[in-house]
Amino acid sequence: MWRSRRLQWTPVRCQNHRLRWPTTAAQDDRATGLRAAVEHPYCGGIVGPKVAGRAGWLSCVPENPCLALCKHCKITFTAKISDIKSHSNSNRHRAASTGTTSIFKYNKKVMGSTVKSTGVPSLDATNIVSMYRELARVPQPVDAFASYTADGRTLHLTTVWESADTEMGQKVRFTRHHTSAFDNQGPLSFHQVGHAQEVDPNSLTAISNSGSFRAVLKEVTRDTETKQYIEIWDATTKLDCLDLESAGVHGKVHMTGNFASFQWGHIENKLLYIAERKPAKKDSYFTRKLALDAERGTEYQLDESYGEQQEEHVSPVICILNVANMAVSVIQDFPDMCAPGQAVWAPDDNGIVFVGFQQYAYKLGLTYCKNRHSKLYVYDLDQHTFCTIGETDKAIYSPRFSPDGATLVYLQSEVGGPHRQSCQLMKCSWEKKDILLIVDTIQSPTSHEFPGLYIDELPRHCWAADNTTVVVSSGWHSKVELLAVNTLSGDLIKLSRDEAVGRWQGVLTADGGVNYWTSIDSDESKVQGICWYILQFAPPDDSHQIFEAILISHKNEKELPLIVWPHGGPHSVFHAGFQIWPILFVKCGFAVLLVNYRGSIGFGEDNLRSLAGKVGTQDVFDVQCAAEVTAQREEINPTKIVIFGGSHGGFLASHAIGQYPDFYKAAVMRNPVVDLSMCGPTDIPDWIWYEGGLTGEFMFDSLPDGDDIKNLWMKSPIRYAKNIVTPTLLLLGRKDKRVDMAQGTKLYKHLKARGVPTRCNAYNDGHALSKPAHDADCFVNTVLWFKKYLA
Predict the structure, then answer these.
(1) Which residues of 166-199 are buried (b: 16+ CB within 10 A; e: fewer)?
(2) What are the beta bridge partners of residue 475?
């Protein structure tokens, strides 16, 4: 029988973990008025706090006894004695308790702060659009910069936020500025300075180490022509500006992707960045007057790019801007014909450390792929020589120097295999170039042990001021945790211990000197009215593996229709952080089940690699079991279950409605993989080879034989297409380089020919369908499709 580890159907004390535990331990704290509080063994929260008369501001949260509620401030926090004390001493609590407020506080309309379940039957296009507009305005943090004044008494914090403007059909990025007195002793209390300031989303900013200078790389479009400029600013004015096209020494600068870099030198007289090699001029055989440096007959020659989301990245080079005279020099002759990226200055600015992606017969896609063969190189600016650091048969990325320049850390993964996998944290003693392993991969962790590092990149400022500690955010099951790693001992400490938070992202000052916990959010910015649980499952066919699912629903609602949503990848994961679509689904009256099936990242390498060769069976089984177990909960209506997924999630959704045709009432898929045997036009052909479990390792000249094609077809959803009776909506990208649009249209035409209710929307977009206007249209159509077939 299927069993669920940690999942209990009777009421239990902790809704986060669904566990019972011994209640013999007790704590008595007279300062806060807490008596007979029992400490939770996992999250450290105090369960069922009993409040004495003089601590009447505190109460427990009925839905989650691991949280405490401040009646004055109207906020919740982990019910630990230390956290309760900290809150009771905060300026905010004192002001709320005495009825005083800041002179700068004013009443304002709160948009989208509370989720109210609309109810699926009452939905129409108008109120769905209204809800999307409202919640799209809720900003999400994307970056932060912290620094303090020369006297060390004031801390400046700049946070970068992003939201979507549905009227303009584009994302809006802006900054907020905060300051706090800083004395290394008392708690921080941040105050916002001025208004939020919009920043150009098509720009990059680099602040010099001293904070004296700011460089801005921006794109400006006039009359359909786009140019790039670099501006140099000090604290008061713009000092200079360079038109990079007029300089004429390289092509377009990389602002995103695996190669991008934009960094001041330590001496603050140079800027380092990555751009495209100056393109050779192409001309026709029939041109009467050939340009001086043009090659005849090359106008239609294919220039291979690095795939999805990197269509303009073909041949990168390293560029250095001398700020004194605004002259650009280009380094473009690289060893092994490698493609340079992620460049950083070596100590004293006498060299450049960069990642060199190795070149083969043709280019493979780099987006979401951390398994591409790459080496770590050092370029000596004086000698004009290259040398490698560390192992040369790995996938290497994210080089970061310690503040004193004595140590370099970087991430390292295996070449080939799953596109996203656990990485090793490596360090290099810069003087001796000795390489040491700090954190290794973990093969089979227990359900509560550290599962290994799952990091896409290291933060720009990941080092603490002690030149010993590195702070990173890493996937840990269905959460992102904040970790501190001692680079001398390899010891690792989990800094994020609040079970009420599902995703942590850390930021340090440039020298790593500020290390305090505090909140700068107002209560009004938080979305209320939802509850979420992480459910953990133990498959009956494998006693050593687990997987999880995140259930999100409206509080105090029952008999909700359920959207089952497996992630793509397949080696990806859903984290229990803010995501606009799940929240909107809940607001529309659904419950949402985000399934992290076996093969997801963050559960150990054995778990991740267990899926290879078993796609279409193991992952489908996990998703279906999670759906069936969750359907038994009292808040779910087991007769109203639908499924949604994109990419590999679409692969699983199409499998589910083919293998379980009576279980799901409707399905929506974004750019699904439908037929592995026909998946030729893709920027990641190695993905099919590895996940399909084909014989031998992928080679650049690999071609599947008849047995391979049969094997791939047997693992594909198209095998079950004749069983499908579920109404199906397909959302496809015309510019998708990862999963060809023909995959989705193949299923669409088959269902249409059989009379199954189906519809197909095609967008002028890539694999993620991430353009704001397309994302909005996809959501509205998805909800309307589900509503229609749940009626």
Answers:
(1) beeeebbbbbbbbbbebeeeeebebeeeeeeeeb
(2) 480
- Amino acid letter for position 178: H
Does residue 656 register a pLDDT over 90? yes
Task: Answer whether residue 30 shows pLDDT above 80.
Answer: no
CATH of 202-280+305-519, one of 2.120.10.30, 3.30.70.330, 3.20.20.70, 3.30.930.10: 2.120.10.30
Q: Residue 549: which region, alpha, beta or left (left: phi > 0; alpha: psi -120 to 50)?
A: beta
Mean pLDDT in the chain? 84
pLDDT at position 29 is 38
CA distance 402 to 390: 17
Whether 89 has a pLDDT exceeding 70, the answer reads no
For residue 78, the cross-strand partners are: 67
Question: Long-range contacts made by residues 787-790, C-beta under 8 angstroms, separation at least 24?
Answer: 787/120, 787/121, 787/123, 788/666, 788/727, 789/642, 789/665, 789/666, 789/727, 789/757, 790/120, 790/561, 790/640, 790/642, 790/665, 790/666
Q: Which residues are catalytic?
A: 647, 736, 767
271-322: pLDDT as tens digits: 999 999 998 888 888 888 877 778 888 889 999 999 999 999 999 999 999 9
Alpha-carbon distance 366 to 341, whole Å?
12
Concatenated DSSP letters of 745-788: HHHHHHHHHTT--EEEEEESS-TT--SHHHHHHHHHHHHHHHHH
Domain residue ranges of the chain, discontinuous segments joined by +: 27-98, 202-280+305-519, 530-790
Give the pTM.
0.82
CB 341 within 8 A of CB 274: yes
CA dist 134 and 113 (Å) reads: 9
Whether the predicted pLDDT of 17 surpasses 50: no
Distance CA 766, CA 20 (A): 47
Please give the CATH number for the structural domain made up of 530-790.
3.40.50.1820
**How many Å apart are CA 82 and CA 606, to the nearest integer?**
38
**Looking at this protein, which amino acid is placed at residue 276?**
E
* pLDDT tens figures, 197-238: 898 888 899 999 888 999 999 999 888 889 999 999 998 999
